[in-house]
Amino acid sequence: MPASREETLSALNWLIEAGADEAIGDVAPDRFRATTNPPVEGGSKSATPITVRGPAPTPAKPPPPRPQRPEGPRALASITPSNIAPLATDGFGSALELAAMCQSLSQLKEALESFQGSELKKHAQNTVFADGNPDSRIMLIGEAPGRDEDAAGLPFVGRAGKLLDKMMEAIGLNRSTFYIINVLPWRPPDNRNPDPAEVAMCIPFLRRHIELAQPKILILLGAVSARHVLGLNDGIMKLRGRWLEYRIGTEMIPVMPTLHPAYLLRQPAHKKLAWRDLQAVADRLDELGLSAKD
User: Fold this and answer.
1) Of 15-24, 100-109, 224-233, 277-286, where does mean pLDDT reach its minimum?
2) Mean pLDDT in the chain?
3) What is the distance between the alpha carbons of residues 107 and 101, in angstroms, rounded to a whole number?
4) Are 131 and 259 contained in the same domain?
5) Cα(246)–Cα(206) distance, rounded to whole angstroms?
6) Closest CA to 197 of 59, 4, 6
7) Which of 175, 199, 257, 271 gives 226 a disulfide partner, CB atoms 3.0 to 4.6 angstroms apart?
8) Would you say residue 77 lies in a domain?
9) What pTM does this model have?
10) In this structure, are 276 and 133 located in the same domain?
């Protein structure tokens, strides 16, 4: 049976999390073209090579012309899905295309604010892009905006955000010395769990955000963040406290999954576990030569 739209988007989301986020070519190679057998070792040099031919290939239709992609940072003065003709009716494809075109954080923010392919955005008050210092090499990634964040347009400004600030201050960091984003830039209605299709629309922007910010260390807040950044489905209690890695270009950077501050508000006895994780982060920052002012 043909896959449903949700199943297809879920499969695409899985492929992106696995790192398969681009096509290699627009036209399949012709594997039936004529080939010539190499000379057999010890045979006569004057032997006539044998030409092997497969069935005559069916002439392929030329691919439709692709729209001219803007070149360079100045080309994205205004980004909208409407100028991506082949993907204009495909929200996921438009997200991939827009994210790949962005050459700076400001362009990525503009792309998210102009993007119309997400159902979540239609119900949100604001696009919650980021907070903190974008020049910092310490990046925190949460799950999704809540009611307070949706109203303010900034991540982690409610009760969980206040607890997070205290946690980071305990290791000498604050919002002038770290950068913080969410997996989802839009609040799901009534804080419900987003479906796979809704998450899939956000993953290309998330990955491009990490690439453009170029962090030297990632702190993942909660299981949702770990799942969509690292592609791991293990529970946060199994993942927390363990150093993992994330690839940015050719570089592997350290990643520390830890407990989400919203969870700690419900389970304060587990704050000691989060404290151990943050102590490990502080030690790694010292090893990397990243002081609080960096």
Assistant:
1) 15-24
2) 83
3) 9
4) yes
5) 13
6) 6
7) 257
8) yes
9) 0.72
10) yes
pLDDT of residue 84: 45
Residue 45 has pLDDT above 60, yes or no: no
Q: What was the pLDDT predicted at 123?
A: 92
Do both 142 and 282 map to the same domain? yes
Please determine, for residue 167, whether its predicted confidence score (pLDDT) is greater than 80: yes
For residue 164, the enclosing domain spans 126-288
Name the one residue in this structure whose structure tokens are 């438009």. 94
Confidence at residue 94, expressed as pLDDT on a 0 to 100 scale: 87
Give a yes or no: residue 34 inside a domain.
no
Total domain count for the chain? 2
Residues 146 and 278 grouped into a single domain: yes
For the domain that residue 191 is a member of, what is the CATH number?
A: 3.40.470.10
Listed residue (9, 25, 73) closest to 203, CA to CA: 9
